[in-house]
Amino acid sequence: MNSNKTITASSHQEPRQDLIDRIQTLEMNQAFQEDSLEAMEKTIMQQHMEIQNLQNKMTLLSDYLKALRQEAGQGGIKSPEDEVPPPHY
To answer: H helices of the chain, where?
Structure first.
């Protein structure tokens, strides 16, 4: 009967080991996904800051162009039709 107990015990160990292996695999996958999420969050934050910086620069450029247009009548940027042709024409 001792041999039957050994067979029964080993047959119970196999499913248990399979479950342990599956749990370990799931834990490794979860850790990998957490690392991936952290990396993506950092990238998104950097991109968000870069977009804000670019939006600020666009606002400054837009304001600068508006100011130049207002000065057009006062010797600032002229439209191409109002420009004097270069001397070689």
So the answer is: 2-70
